[in-house]
Every structure is written in C-alpha cells, then in structure tokens.
Design a protein that fits this description.
With 405 residues, the protein is α+β, with helices and mostly antiparallel strands. It is built from 13 helices and 12 strands. It has 2 domains: 184 residues, no CATH class; 178 residues, no CATH class. Helix 2 crosses helix 11.
Length: 405
C-alpha cells in the first residue's frame, strides 16, 4: 500500500510540470530507442552473415595454391600453381575425416542462347561440388563420373543465368554456346543469393572440371580444391591431415613455408563474427551516450525540483517525515521518469528498427535480451543520477527549509 501511495505522490509531482518532465525523459527515450534499434540492426546483420557463410557449404575446407617467390619478389596467393588432380585424389583416399572432395577450376566466358548472350563465371568441379556447397538442383540433374572422365560438354546453370537468358523457358535440355562450343544444360541450381563478399552466387555455370581444363581454359593445374569434413568437430584435424599430406607430396622440408593455403569455413565465420561483434559493441556504446545524457538531464531537473520544493520538504519533515522518507520520495520520482522514458524508448526503438528494415531492406533481429538490458539500464540511470538530488533533499535542515522563500 505504501508503495502505491509513493508512486501516486511521484506521479502527482511529475504531473505538475508536464512539459518539463516530457523534455527530461526525452534523452532516455532517445537513448533506449537507439540502443534497441542499433542492437537489432547489428544482430540482423550478424544473422545475415551467418546465413551467407552457411550458404558457402557445410563444414567446407578450401585449399588454395600458395604464393610464388622468384628473384626476391613474392607473388600473391595463387600465383604458384601447385595443386594437381593427383593431390585431390590423394586427399580423398588418405584423409579419413573428409566426406567429399572436389577439384575446382575457374574461368570466365560469354554464353550464348538464341539471340541472347551473357558474361558469367564458369566453375569446373567434380560430381561432389554441389554436395560440398550444399547446393540443391531444382530441375534436371547433376553430371556423373562418366561426364567428368570424358570431359563432356554438359552444364548446370544458376538462377541469374536462367532469368537473363531463358526468360520463362525451361533451360533443361537446351543447348548454349560457351566460347563457341555447344553445351547441353542438364540441371538448374537453386537460388543462393549474394555471398559474404557481395558476389552473386547464382551468376554461374558449373561444368565438369575436366571440361573446364581441356576445352575452356587450357589449364593444367587447379585453381583450388574444396573438401567437406564429416562434421564440424573434424574440420581442425582434417585441415591438419591435409597440410601434412600436401607437404609430403610437394616435398616441403622442415622449416620451409607451405606452397598452399588452407581456409576453413570456421575461419571465415570467426573473422566475420569478430567484425560483427565489434560493430555491435560500437553501436551500443554510441547509443548508450544518449542514455547518459538523459541521465544527466534527470539529475539536473531533480536538482531544480529540490530547490523549488525546499519549503515543501521542510513542511514534510516538520510533521514527522524522516530524512530517508524524503530520499525515497525523490528517488522514486527519478526512477518513474527514467522508467517511463524507457517504456517509450522501447516502442521508439522497435518502430525505428522496423522502418529501417522496411525502407532500407536491412535485416533486423529484435531480441528480448536487448529490451530488458536497455530498460534495466534506464532504470539504473534513474537511480544513479537521482540519488544525489534525493540525498541533498533528505539532508535539508527542516527549520532552514521552512524559512526558504
């Protein structure tokens, strides 16, 4: 009962100066709203990154050729063509932690269908390429081992090529020309969207890697090798086993640098996760500044209120109120102001996040945890910044307070 009476008195005191109270809570409203909106946008971006990384495949391990070193000049990664088909075959047979391995050959080509043409990326892989990339086929089928051995001129196309070249026609069974050679489309890949580097994954033509090497690019070495670990826990031991195998096959002695580079899906996820975490923390810190400014505003207005109500405080003490009664009364007013601002801020933050998502097409993720933390922080600010004015009021001399004009 006393608690309800305390709240009633606090609301009555706040309502005396409605405009001043509203302006005082504005800082808290903006601060809480900014925290919730920024965290929601940051979490949404992190979730999008995780989905994009998952779109790369399942437990993927990428093996790239290393850098070359000649005449005191070091080339970039991939400038040394050290990966061969035999290396990939050895990985498949001798590394027990892998569920699938594929060579990868990459080139660019113009493809022509009827009177339409399109410049795209051509990827050569084995029958396991779509399995490693976790890429389903929505129409038609994958090529088989026989097509790989014979370097058959067959291909699977991504949705971007379907949209730009076929315009409503069924691509399966159609013949396109790639570098003036006829290729038969045997499958259509499901839509994957952009990857973490902003590249359209659906703008791709996938062919047997032997076809890409012998008939499209003329390469004798691989651009990379791609493998899939049997489970997420086996990615680390699989990477170690691949490293040991390739060092042995490439006759790399102790102390010598590897002529290849291994990157796992977990490595990419850790890097992107660290970046996202840093951005979320920075956004939360920036938004928290508004909360602190709002807290200073509450302290300022409560100090003014103590000065304005000095005589009232004296009367309360004269009729028997203790110092802690006055302390609790003013502290409750401060907390009510901050909590009311926190509630309005929650609504503002959710509305802002929703508007950003709708108009900027940016993903958001509003979590209950961020709402509770922001509201709790607002209440704590009310207590922290309201304590000094409340204590100042509780320490007033009743006689001096009654004399105050």
């Amino acid at each position: 009962m006393r608690f309800l009476l305390l709240l009633k008195v606090a609301f009555r005191a706040i309502a005396r100066n409605k405009l001043r109270s509203a302006l005082t809570t504005l800082g808290i409203v903006i601060g809480v709203g900014a925290v919730i909106a920024m965290v929601a946008i940051g979490e949404g971006a992190s979730q999008m990154v995780r989905q994009q990384i998952a779109g790369l495949g399942e437990n993927v391990i990428n093996v790239f050729p290393g850098s070359s070193y000649s005449g005191g000049v070091r080339g970039g990664g991939g400038s040394s063509s050290t990966l061969t088909e035999e290396d990939v075959e050895a990985m498949s047979k001798q590394v027990p932690y892998l569920s699938a391995v594929t060579p990868v050959v990459q080139t660019n080509a113009q493809i022509i269908f009827a009177n339409q043409n399109w410049q795209t990326q051509v990827i050569g892989g084995s029958v396991d390429y779509t399995k490693i990339r976790n890429w389903s086929i929505v129409s038609g089928s994958n090529f088989n081992d026989s097509a790989v051995r014979s370097a058959a001129k067959v291909a699977m196309v991504g949705q971007t090529i379907v949209d730009n070249l076929f315009q409503g026609e069924d691509p399966v069974g159609q013949v396109i020309r790639v570098k003036n050679m006829p290729f038969t489309i045997i499958g259509v890949l499901s839509k994957k969207g952009m990857n973490t580097w902003g590249r359209d994954q659906d703008d791709v033509l996938i062919v047997p890697y032997t076809t890409a090497m012998k008939k499209l690019s003329g390469q004798t070495r691989l651009n990379m090798a791609m493998a899939s670990a049997a489970s997420a826990e086996l990615m680390a031991p699989a990477s170690t086993a691949i490293t040991e195998l390739l060092r042995q096959r490439h006759r790399i002695g102790p102390g010598q640098e590897d002529d290849f580079t291994i990157r796992t899906q977990q490595d990419v996820q850790n890097v992107m996760g660290s970046t996202s975490s840093i951005m979320r923390v920075l956004l939360a810190i920036i938004a928290s500044v508004s909360l602190l400014v709002g807290g200073i505003g509450i302290m300022n207005i409560m100090l003014v209120s103590v000065t304005e109500r000095t005589r009232e405080i004296g009367i309360r003490m004269a009729v028997g109120a203790k110092g802690w009664h006055v302390l609790v009364q003013f502290l409750s007013e401060s907390v009510v102001l901050s909590c009311f601002g926190g509630l309005l801020g929650i609504g503002l933050g959710m509305l802002t996040a929703e508007l950003v998502s709708r108009f900027a097409r940016w993903p958001i993720l509003i979590s209950a945890e961020s709402i509770f933390v922001a509201f709790g922080f607002a209440a704590a600010i009310g207590v922290f910044f309201g304590y000094w004015p409340a204590r100042k009021a509780s320490l007033l001399d009743p006689i001096e307070a009654l004399r105050y004009e």
